[in-house]
């Protein structure tokens, strides 16, 4: 569980870089998460996502695109299966798409939620690039270790 000081620091950073787009939910309860919205620059669409905070910052948090649900690839295939070319770790029961943003072995508790949200934004921009061109998300997002 996140300390009160860490929560305050995370909230300040998110408000600075993603003003009025992030809201902490269920803090101090079961299933805490960060709910946020991102508008793409490629197609101008709005996406809603959440970051599970159950074990944050001590383990890599799960990140889901929650709206629109049941994302599809350019050819209409559902984007619900694990696929490293699309940086996907499967899908949820309600049509969420689980993103791969950091590997568990590269996770460090000093990584701020700001960076996780930023990686989700990059994934969204790459996803829309895929919708326009058919290139995989991996084509747009290069992994560095």
What does this structure look like?
It is a single chain. The chain has about 140 residues and is an alpha+beta fold. Helix content is about 25%, strand content about 20%. The protein has three helices and seven strands; from the N terminus they run αβββββββαα. Strand 2 (about 35-40) and strand 3 (about 45-50) form a beta hairpin.
List key phrases describing it.
alpha+beta, seven-stranded antiparallel beta sheet, 145 residues, 27% helix, 7 strands, globular, 3 helices
Main β-sheet: number of strands, strand sense, barrel status? 7 strands, antiparallel
Structural class: alpha+beta
State the end-to-end CA separation: 27 Å
Compute the average pLDDT.
93
Strand content bin: 15-25%
Give the secondary structure arrangement, pairings included:
Elements: H1 4-17, E1 22-25, E2 33-39, E3 46-52, E4 63-67, E5 82-83, E6 88-91, E7 97-99, H2 113-133, H3 137-140
Antiparallel strand pairs: 1-2, 2-3, 3-4, 4-7, 5-6, 6-7
State the gist of this model.
Helix content is 27%, strand content 22%. By secondary structure, it is of the alpha+beta class.
